[in-house]
Amino acid sequence: MRYRHSTFAQAASAPVSKATFRVPTRGRRPALAAAVESAFDTAAPPAFDTAVETALAAPVDRVPAESDGPVLAELQLDPELLTGPVEVTGITQVTHDVKTFELRAGWMTAVDFAPGQYVTMRIPELGLERCYSISSAPFGTNIFTVTVKRVAGGAVSTHLHENVRVGDQLHVDGPYGLFSTSFHQAERHLFLSAGSGITPIMSMVRSLLARQGGLGTDIVFVHSASTPADIIFRAELEQLAEVAGVSVTILCSRDSEAETWAGRRGRIDASTLAEVVPDAADRETFLCGPGSYMNAVRPLLAEAGVPSARTHEESFVFATSPADRLAKAGARAKGAETGAVGVTGVSHAVEFRVSGRVVDCDESTTVLDSALDAGLSVPSSCSEGACGTCKSVLVSGEVEMKHAGGIRPKEIAAGKFLPCCSTPLTDIVVDR
Ligand code: FES
Predict the structure, then answer these.
(1) Does ligand 1 lie within 6 Å of residue 372's CB atom?
(2) Does 251 sit in the ligand 1 pocket, CB within 6 Å?
(3) Ligand 1 contacts CB of residue 406 (under 6 A)
(4) ω into residue 79 within 30 of 0, thus cis?
């Protein structure tokens, strides 16, 4: 088996393992310092030691005894993966339509993730999966949080908001994603978010502040919300604004019913950017929000001289919906009849071993699309190699995979791949 893929090269060279560590808890201070220093590849400053100790202090009593969760062998879980059943241990109403769910991975001592990464949450009763950013920082407990905005008509977010209670179990798979300060380390950061795009950003900001213990922090954070009532983590943002080395700007497009916004108004523009972050070009920039926001901000960053190589983006508003994909499959089928598609002229046999179907797949067609064309049901969500939902085993053959962080290097090494972003280079056999 051989894979060609672009993003993995970036992921493999990034300090993923450096950002994932398990901090021993009570009574093991020397090991803690060693773990922290190893995690960040540098000596932890004294203030950072204090910050980590403080971060550990509150939740340490909640680190479960072994009897709290099923043992690893029973669950067949990889201890490095945040994949399995998690218990809802707390629910906080953040705004009128946003809740934070505190989740405990009972089989782990400490969850492993890089700040900014996300998990795919599976709701078996709905037969649906959705990606949610982890909003907490990764500091040595098996507790983490996801913050979910209720989306009008959104089945999963509505289910989470209306039906999920403390004590319930959810299933997560992750962590995924390369949108993290751990993979793009820098001294100075610019964070730009809109709406619920703030969730991965808060994980990174919280992590940087704990990591640096307030020393040498140089963060500019610009968040946009529709109204004051829609500002997620508002109290924390206001506290952050008081921290040395942290600049926070909140923009609201309009007033809410109960509050006239006294801060900056309107949408982010070139003059606001130049005023609040005149040195944008010298900062590692992280951008997260709805597609329209991202489209508006990209040119502003380019105008401000921020190199595209130092601009990192994430949006869970995927370009292709399931309905779009089915429509595309229909168009491909029609095009194939007329000779309008399949332009490379090179195709390979794709065998779906479990279902016993074999289809021809053009080198320009993804394996997922070929499965849909064949009428096969392969779970998928993003179609962009980001969520991990379509992960499958490549039994034999070669594919070119261009993923966006939805698969881990060790999964690739174990023979897995993402059909949604892979095209065949040879005849292949897929375990589907
Ligand atoms: S559908 Fe999301 S990674 Fe394939």
Answers:
(1) no
(2) no
(3) yes
(4) no
What whole-number distance in Å separates Cα of residue 136 and Cα of residue 202? Answer: 7
Q: Quick one: which atom of ligand 1 is closest to the CA of 318?
A: 2
Q: How far apart (Å, rounded) are the C-alpha atoms in residues 399 and 321? A: 24
User: What pTM does this model have?
Assistant: 0.69
Please list, in sequence order, all residues whose beta carbon lies within 8 angstroms of the beta carbon of residue 291, skipping any fewer than 6 positions away: 315, 317
What is the chain's pLDDT, residue by residue, as a tens digit (432 residues)? Answer: 334 332 323 333 332 222 222 222 223 333 333 333 333 333 333 333 343 333 333 222 222 222 233 333 333 445 467 888 999 999 999 999 999 999 999 988 888 899 999 998 989 888 888 889 999 998 788 999 999 999 888 899 999 999 999 999 999 988 888 899 999 989 999 999 999 999 999 999 999 998 766 677 899 999 999 999 999 999 999 999 999 999 999 999 999 999 999 999 999 999 999 999 999 999 999 999 988 899 999 999 999 999 999 999 987 655 444 455 555 555 555 555 544 444 456 789 999 988 888 888 888 889 998 888 777 878 777 788 887 888 999 999 999 999 888 888 888 999 999 999 999 999 999 998
C-alpha 324 to ligand 1 mean position (Å): 14
Find out whether the beta carbon of 420 lies less than 6 Å from any atom of ligand 1.
Answer: yes
d(CA 394, ligand 1 centre) in Å: 15
List residues bridging with 170 in a β-sheet: 86
In angstroms, the CA 153 to CA 175 distance is 26
Secondary structure class of 35 (helix, strand, coil): helix
